[in-house]
Amino acid sequence: MKKVLITGGNGFLGKILRQLLESKGFCIIASGLGKDRLKEHNHSYIELDVTNKTRCLQVIQENNPDVIVNAAAMTNVDSCEIKQKECLQINTDSISNLNISKNRHFIQISTDFVFDGKNGPYLENNK
Questions:
Q1: What range defines the domain where residue 106 resides?
Q2: 72 found inside a domain
Q3: What is the per-residue pLDDT across 15-67, written as a single tens digit (0 to 9) for each?
Q4: Domains of the chain: total
Q5: In 3D, which of 34, 26, 32, 25 has the Cα closest to residue 66?
Q6: Cis amide linkage into residue 121, ω under 30° from 0
Q7: Residue 123 lies in a domain
Q8: Which of 3, 71, 83, 90 has CA 20 to 30 A from 100's CA?
Q9: Any idea what the CATH number is for the domain that residue 24 is in?
Q10: Which residues of 50-77 are buried (b: 16+ CB within 10 A; e: fewer)?
Q11: Does residue 44 sit within a domain?
């Protein structure tokens, strides 16, 4: 059974992904800020701030997931404008905290808040 670490497990995409992958038989380790907001599930939950590189490494080493799905993000547009540094740390810099091993798959997912919508459709290598 594949073990999947899902960051941003309390967010919109994270909660849906947790339920979907659990229903398909994957072993899920969900993480997020604060308490688990998904009431009914049969997987583990870990509080994790993705901007904390040491803690990310610890969680990855302790759980040894086959796949890491990063759904952690700061998505409120107004908050992102006001707290630009925090937004960059969560939405950009934290990716290097999670994508630390060449021996596992890393999937980055996000909502439409990430792109401006002016030049789509977008490809994986667009900046």
A1: 3-114
A2: yes
A3: 999 999 999 999 999 999 988 888 888 899 999 999 999 999 999 999 999 99
A4: 1
A5: 26
A6: yes
A7: no
A8: 83
A9: 3.40.50.720
A10: beeeebbeebbeebebeebbbbbbbbee
A11: yes
